[in-house]
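Slide 14.
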Amino acid sequence: MSLNATEELVIDGQRMDVNISGSLTGARLTSDYEGVTRLELTIFDPRMDLMRSGALTRPGKPSKGQKAFAEAAWDRFSAARLNLDGISFRLAGAAFSYSYETRETRVVFEDELATVMRLRDEALKVSRGADTRAEFIGRLVNGAVKRASLPFTSKGRYYSPQAGQKQPIAAPDDEEGRTKGFPKGRKIPIKTGTAGAQARENLTIALTEADRLRAGERATLALINAGITESEWENKTEEESDADSSGVLQVQRRTAVTITPSIVIDPRTGNAHGNVTHTRAVARGALNPRSVIECTRLFLLKGFAAYSGGAIKYAADNPDAEIYEICQAMQGSGAGRESNGQANYGPWTEQAREILDLWGGAGRLVTIRESFEFRAGGRRNGRSSTWWDDSGSMAEEVRWRRFAHRNRVWFVPDEWLFERAPTFTIDGEHGPAGLAAQGVRDFDTSQVDIGLPTSELRFRVFLPRWGGPPGSTVLLRNLGPLDGKWLIAVNEQDIYATPEDSTLTLVRPAPAKKEPAPNTSTTRQTETLPEAGTIRESIVAAARKALDKYGPGAQNIYRYQQKRPMPPTLFPKSLEQAGPTLVFLDCSAFVTLCYKAAGANDPNGSGYNGSGYTGTLAANGKKTNDPQPGDLVMYGPAPTYSHVAVYIGGGRAIGIGSDPGPREHDAKYRADFGGYFTFQLGSGE
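Slide 15: predicted structure.
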């Protein structure tokens, strides 16, 4: 081996002060397409001159975590550099081996790029939507080189054939609804018995619709309670029922839809106001009383008796009402009128709760797909992680190869490597003598299974230094079942020998995996109408009032403008006057002033001093997967975002953009939807 260690082994930029010329007894160069190229030198060191010289433990400033070990040399260990054929290596390990026959020091060097990446453990992350996996690994390589002030050019230190090309993503597991529904084999209590197949099916239909309508717990309990009392959730015909009633809620054909009555009976007090109860007869076919889904919708959205707002609204307007009172308000039961429904519906309230618990509670179960991020560095499970180790883990996730060889980091799939022209060919046409003439010394086929794609083939061959690089291909001919192209996975070269001897490990290519699906989690959305008189109701009301001033036929007083300080109010005194004062505001000012009009705390956390923007709103709020009316919806890149609107419920939002005036839209109308944020609103929340 032509290596003058006295001239070429340097530490901290200086030549070694220990002369080891002529003391080398071995040198191996190992290249691995899943790791790093390493150089191992064996040096005859009978007096341990190299180990005791301090050359490998040159003093330096200990790292922060090594203050208790002032003499420690771990931080300086990698300062020892070696240059071989223009390729830079860093010291990775050293050991002294002593026996009567052998007194040697063994030093191991690795490709310098891998070393400087091992020295970096700062936490970095980026969304998969912003960078591809290959681009992120390239960012790690370039960042490590820049911090180490190495002279490598950006073009030469990293290569990936598909750096900017997005890879296919595996389909995520859709967990929505997996845990919602009545458990198989579990009995459902109905009065003094258990629900049969029909009652079970009817309950499933009704509760599925209640979840879809975001009915909330109290309105849903009232629905279950009413069905237990009226029919035990059996879809009864008129012949099986009293009078002309039928269905799970025992709806009467001629009083199926309520109009505004002259007499209103307060279900809480039993007091009547007005003159005559007036209902409208419904033509046959307008409502099918035996349609479970139609009756469920009417119960929740309108009601069948004097109160025409539906159970959802009634529960919001009367937060202290008992469940049986909600039932009475919707059903108008004559049997329960004197007791506000307690005698009729009260006995089954707890049973309704038991049924709702068996169902999985109120609210929709939805799958939240988290943003997939590439991460490197930082601490995980109590241990620091390096950029080099994490880039290897990232390669394993998609079954690509990441390796450092000749001062370049490669990130490539096997398919790309396999498509390249063979580095050399081995032809068995002339038998063993012909193989020997080509430099082949021996084959090891013990790990070869022709039927398996993971077969390994090992053989020894004479190759020049750096011949047969990792990831290159070898073509085998006239060797029977071994014929074809193989990838060089590992090349172990004895570069001290003459001629230089290589042991190659060949493998078949493995197919790449798709990008992992984003993590998913199931969460329960329990959105309901805000209770009457609450801040949430007032925030939504303020947004709707501003929208009404901009709607068809209205006089628009709002103009989009990024102006600070914000206007003092969303509704100036001149609002109702002819020629009202224009209000200039942007999206964040709009939502802030909706909160101010409702008497809420400043969502920017600034005490309504006229400042704030989407960034302060996001910083002062808390992200939520269970949005309620009055929360905010963010759009654009985190953490500052670029747009915001008021969530009004039902998947809708109101905000102001570059167009004049507020507008209502779907909460997820933009591709860069950033999520929902909730706030401490203050008393009366």
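Speaker note: The chain has four domains: 5-119, 189-366, 426-512, 530-678.
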